[in-house]
Design goal:
The complex is a heterodimer. Chain A is an all-alpha fold. In chain A, about 40% of the residues lie in helices and about 0% in strands. Chain A is built from nine helices and no strands. In chain A, helix 2 packs across helix 7 and helix 8 packs across helix 9. Helix content of chain B is about 35%, strand content about 20%. The chains are: A mainly alpha, B alpha/beta.
Chain lengths: ~180, ~325
Amino acid sequence: MARKDTARKEQEYDDIPGTFVFDAERSRKGFGINMFCMSLMKDENRKAFKANEPEYLKRFNLTPQQEEAILKRDYNRMLELGGNIYFTAKLGATDGHSFRHLAAVMTSSTQDDYAAMMLAGGRSADGNRSKTGRKTPSMLVGSAKKASSQKSGAAKSSKAKPGKPKSKTPSKSRSNRG
Amino acid sequence: MARIIAGVASSHVPAIGAAIDNKQTEEPYWKRVFSGFEKSKAWMEKTKPDVAIVVYNDHASAFSVEIVPTFALGCASEFPPADEGWGPRPVPVVQGHPELASHIAQSVILDEFDLTICNKMEVDHGLTVPMNLLFGSPQEWPCPVIPLAVNVVLYPPPTAHRCYMLGKAIRKAVESYPEDLRVVIFGTGGMSHQISGPRAGLINSKFDKAFLDNLSKNPKKLTKISHLELMREAGAEGIEMVMWLVMRGALDDKVDETYRFYTVPASNTAVGHIILEPKKRSAGKAKRPTPKRVTNKRPTNKRPTKMKRAAARTKTAVRRSR
């Protein structure tokens, strides 16, 4: 039975930039992606996949979009369509790639730049809390004030900002106040 | 009576396991991480628990997306290391404690925590990496282990509060076990990290430190933390930290912080580690029963009301003035 690709219901955590939360809906839609990735735990399956990728993927009842994302190794798209990182990492391993390679692909970075960012303390949460710049009160750390200095333009962008010290972009937009 | 003698929290980064397995622990990058656990290993060697309960999560090893139990307790007599794609880690088979495990299962289920029972289960780096960090790399693990696998992969994981309350129920279960066993409970995973999507690489040390402070001094505050905040502040995968609250719930409200370690990064993750022990009581108070838990309603252990405490202070002051 072919699965319909219905529109995603908006969730409050969809406001977190650069993040595809693996929730019930994604889990349901991405079942095929994740079962495909899980199958790669067996050597015979890895060989069958490598011998003829499109043919092998037919076993998993994937949508054309999911199939395309897998064949193109578009890791973000896989996550968006219901893949989970612990599963898609198995595809990376099948390709002989390190996790750093996957991280570089997902963050549109290079492996060296990504590694350097991590060594320098990682990607800062500042500027990466909210797509819309809405207030993001934290119980533990006072982030509510900082939300006002987030850019508003990133509303539709799934790109997260790199971990460099945050530039204090003066913002005139009212929408930043949430 | 069995009792919980300490709580340990530790990250369970897979790359730490790989560094151990590939003998890279002396390289400067890894030495920075491993040196933080030297004191902990010495502490553990002295502490010599009879059993360890390890709260961890599976990473698409034992559980696929076919079955996703929220809390799964390992009641088997042994748990082989899982093949995570590179062959099983070269660590000893984890020996279980089926008697205590099934006792805990029975007790907490009747306490309204609907656990899944696993009588056959493989364990991945989520469990074995913290074992290595605290026990080193021995031929055999020094004590039996009861694994408690928590779903933190498929959103939503159990809430922080639910985890904390499960910890309390586990403690009650342990303390109703007749054999004298000294039990250490581990909470694993975290701290801040995100390994998925364009925001991968997120680290939030300020948040992590606040989390550690509260874990030690004010755990009830952490029980109110939302999943949204955890993901926003500590990364999509940082949500694992709810597992630390199972450990914390199993301890007294007030504890001594024996040790703490924090470093960034190990691979993609902020490494956090803490050891908490019951408060050392002065000799005169040594025989007092352990402070009561929420479920225990005996009035004798009740903290005096503000007024009574004030009255007591006045009495002391009067006595002193005499």
